[in-house]
Structure formats: structure tokens, C-alpha cells
Specification:
Length: 159
């Protein structure tokens, strides 16, 4: 940039490339961030009740707030089933499982299961989730400052 405050074509091109690359990375980051900090609700997942002491896979690696209803939409007692969370299968997290612990649930046929689950990329620590939410904000501020600096607005503000 020269002393007269004119912006050359090279600076304009550099700003354009910086913003295009930065916004592309920004847009790619946001979907995975949502999966990392939010639990997902699943309502009325229909599964076939497994035989007594058998299991059926649910979604995600950890589930909570589990409600099981039979085909007549009556609640199933929580003593009739158990949940296995954070299972390790072949050195990796496996999906959470619903295990039948009574013959009455095993004979129920189709059951509706509602629950909240954590996807496989979910961040367990609440402090880390809070910091992870700041990453897009800081990235947006960095893009803004880079574009303003390269266009000479920062020098203009200094006086």
C-alpha cells in the first residue's frame, strides 16, 4: 500500500483469497461443532424387543432419559430393562444398548424407545464444550480483523 492510501490489486486479491478460504473452513467447522456440544433427542424409535437377557443397539455412545413403551403405549417398568453406555468394542466406543431383563418385555414384540443420546464426537467435559463454542466466534473475529487490516482500515483508525 502506498502513502496515499490507495489499495493495490494485489492487496484486494489477497483479502479475497483470505476470506474465501477462511469462510470455507468456517462453514466446514460448524456442523461438527454442533454434534460435539449438543445431545440429540430421539422420540419413539421402534425396535423389536430382544429375547430375555439379550440386547438391541440404540443410537449414540451414551443415552439418558430413556422411556420405553409397549405397543399399547403403556410405560414399561425400568426394572424390565437396563442400559449399557460407553461400551468399548474392538478398542472403540460402541453404541449404547438396551438389554431385556424380563420375559414380559421380551414378549412385547415392538416397543417404542425415546431417549436423549450423545453422538460419538460429543465432548463430555462442560468446560471444554464452553470453550469449543468460542472457537467459531474467535475465527469470525480473526477473519474480520484480517480483512480490515489488509484493506488498511486499521491504519485509518490509528489516525
Amino acid at each position: 500500500m502506498n502513502a496515499k492510501g490507495e489499495i493495490s490489486v494485489g492487496v484486494t486479491l489477497m483479502v479475497a483469497v483470505t476470506l474465501i478460504v477462511g469462510l470455507s473452513l468456517y462453514a466446514a467447522m460448524l456442523p461438527s461443532l454442533g454434534e460435539a456440544v449438543n445431545t440429540i433427542g430421539q422420540t419413539n424409535l421402534t425396535v423389536t424387543a430382544p429375547a430375555a437377557n439379550a440386547t438391541v443397539d440404540l443410537l449414540g455412545r451414551e443415552v439418558n432419559n430413556v422411556i420405553v413403551r409397549n405397543s399399547t403405549l403403556l410405560f414399561v417398568l425400568d426394572t424390565d430393562y437396563s442400559i449399557s453406555n460407553n461400551r468399548i468394542v474392538n478398542g472403540e466406543f460402541g453404541t449404547a444398548q438396551l438389554e431385556t431383563e424380563s420375559v414380559s418385555l421380551a414378549n412385547a414384540g415392538l416397543v417404542n424407545v425415546s431417549f436423549d443420546y450423545e453422538d460419538f464426537g460429543y465432548i463430555d467435559d462442560s468446560g471444554s464444550r464452553a470453550v469449543a463454542l468460542l472457537i467459531p466466534l474467535m475465527a469470525a473475529l480473526a477473519l474480520l480483523m484480517a480483512s480490515l487490516w489488509k484493506l488498511g482500515v486499521v491504519d485509518f483508525l490509528k489516525g
